[in-house]
Amino acid sequence: MPGLAGDEFTQAVYDLVRLIPCGRVTSYGAIARCIGSAGAARRVGWALNQSFDVLPPVPAHRVVNRVGMLSGAMHFPPEAPMASQLEAEGVHIVGNQIVDLNRVFWEPWTALELTYNAEL
DNA sequence: CATCTGACCTAGT
DNA sequence: AACTAGGCCAGAT
Predict the structure, then answer these.
(1) Does the CB of A60 fall within 7 Å of any strand B atom?
(2) Nearest CA-CA partner of A98 in A76, A74, A66
(3) CB of A12 within 8 A of CB of A4?
(4) Which end of chain A has fewer CB atoms < 10 Å from its terminal CB, N or C?
């Protein structure tokens, strides 16, 4: 199964990120793999970069890198910093790094199950 | 047009 | 376990 191209990829990223529960996070690579484009983690970051003024809103602050670092923090608007939004949801940050990542990490394939159940 | 650079990750050594 | 190389692809230089 080849990777999605252009707008489809971007849409798939947005749809999946919108499913991340409050207080949980996931990673770029996990998202890429989940939408059938394993290895395209960088594209996920680029898509999210374009997502700030998209409706419905995309909770891009819930996406971090593999080890839990807030690698995209610098690209957030000053009035809504990434770390602040996560803290507001109960996700603790120390030095641009998520504390106890294992406890808040959300596996994207959970969304596939939800979709599957919803279609039954 | 060629090359470099990212909100990254995996696979190979 | 450390390290490298490669893949991904849109923008910037």
Answers:
(1) yes
(2) A66
(3) yes
(4) C
**A43 is near strand C: CB distance < 7 Å:** yes
A29 touches strand B (CB under 7 A): yes
Distances, alpha carbon A59 to alpha carbons A5, A22, A80, A111, A117, in Å: 22, 9, 11, 15, 23
pLDDT at A117 over 80: no
Structural contact between residues A31 and A13, judged by C-beta atoms closer than 8 angstroms: yes
A46 touches strand C (CB under 7 A): yes
Residue pair A86/A25 in contact by the 8 Å Cβ criterion? yes
Please state the pTM of the whole predicted model: 0.90
Q: Is the CA virtual torsion A50, A53, A12, A6 positive or negative?
A: negative
pLDDT tens track for A63-107:
999 999 999 999 999 999 999 999 999 999 999 999 999 999 999
